Automatic annotation (TrEMBL):
Residues 313-341 are annotated as: Disordered. It comes from Betta splendens. Gene3D superfamilies: Transcription termination factor 3, mitochondrial. This is Transcription termination factor 4, mitochondrial. Transmembrane segments: none annotated. Residues 315-328 have a biased composition (Acidic residues). Belongs to the mTERF family. InterPro entries: MTERF (IPR003690), MTERF_sf (IPR038538).
Length: 341
């Protein structure tokens, strides 16, 4: 009987534990939590896979700001035709490797305040700008500001003569220093020259100095009039030709030491700033045929002068060589005589 009581208590305990709420939650809710974790993991994996797939489909979506593409060009404000023109020009210069560099260049030009049409015209005039690093462009633009080109003037100079961006900073500084020290232009006059005649940065400074001295001494004109006339826009030959043409027609006279002339000379601005037709009709009072004949005759004179000057230089050089030979021979003979003694 005692054994039966013990058996009944054991069975009651087993049944009570089998249907307890704790075990029900443990055995029936645990699979639900596991399924939730599996469900969440599958969602994350699906999202990662979809993101990877998206990147594979759009490999340049994250590089639009740094690499050149038609889409990035349109985002910068270019039309479809303009974007295509830039893309083709970059590909023709350096190929696909130029894309990132060209994008940086465009960014600098837009930062300068130029609009898409101006940028396109600039690059069509001077495609070499594509090949310049953005850091170099910024330094060169900054140096142009230092020499006095303010906002407005700077943009006009760059748009009109973009080749100035291909010139190193040191060269521009040397030209400005040369104009101040050798030609005695003021700082403001140097700024005006660089603004009106930016191509001077590519000229031979010896030719620049000769042109300045010709106008200053031969024509008797001061620096202020040179700047107004935009003297450095025209070639040295054109300066000499127009001046000589007026002089031989009795329409121009070199001032004396007091700056006086027997006639009233035309202003330098009317001589050099005007185009050829205006110069002939309003200043020289001559026909184009007369000027053409005069140019050919003057060119022949210059050629003869150069030949004569070359012959004189050659004779002078031969004479100096003969003197050196005689000096050497006399020195040797004196040495021999002293040695014999």
């Amino acid at each position: 009987m005692g054994t039966g009581v013990v058996v009944r208590q054991v069975l009651r305990y087993a049944v009570r534990n089998a249907f307890s709420p704790f075990h029900f939650r443990r055995w029936h809710f645990q699979p639900l939590c596991i399924s939730c974790r599996l469900f969440c993991s599958s969602d994350i994996q699906t999202s990662v896979q979809s993101a990877q797939h998206s990147r594979e489909l759009h490999p340049l979506s994250g590089k639009a700001a740094t690499e050149l593409s038609l889409h990035s060009l349109r985002d910068m404000g270019f039309t479809d035709i303009q974007a295509q023109q830039i893309w083709e020009s970059v590909s023709a210069i350096r190929g696909s490797s130029a894309a990132k560099q060209a994008m940086s260049t465009l960014t600098v030009l837009f930062g300068l305040g130029l609009n898409p049409s101006s940028v396109l015209k600039l690059l069509q005039k001077c495609p070499e700008v594509y090949t310049i690093k953005d850091s170099q462009l910024q330094k060169r633009i900054g140096n142009l500001r230092k020499v006095g080109l303010v906002e407005g003037s700077l943009q006009r100079v760059v748009a009109h003569y973009p080749q100035i961006l291909t010139v190193p900073v040191k060269t521009v500084k040397n030209v400005a220093l040369f104009l101040r020290e050798k030609c005695l232009f003021t700082s403001q006059q140097v700024t005006d020259i660089l603004r009106d005649c930016p191509a001077i940065v590519h000229e031979d400074l010896a030719q620049v100095e000769y042109k300045f001295q010709y106008v200053y001494f031969r024509m008797g004109v001061k620096q202020t009039e040179m700047v107004k006339a935009r003297l450095f826009r025209i070639t040295l030959d054109e300066v000499r030709c127009r001046h000589c043409f007026l002089e031989r027609r009795g329409l121009y006279q070199t001032p004396d030491k007091k700056g006086q002339t027997a006639i009233i000379n035309p202003k330098l601005e009317s001589i050099f700033k005007a185009d050829q037709d205006t110069f002939l009709t309003e200043v020289a009072k001559a026909s184009i045929e007369e000027y053409d004949v005069f140019q050919r005759l003057l060119a022949k004179e210059w050629q003869e002068e150069e030949q004569l000057y070359g012959n004189i230089e050659a004779e002078s050089s031969d004479y100096e060589d003969e003197e050196e030979d005689e000096a050497e021979q006399s020195g040797r003979s004196g040495y021999i005589k002293r040695k014999k003694k």
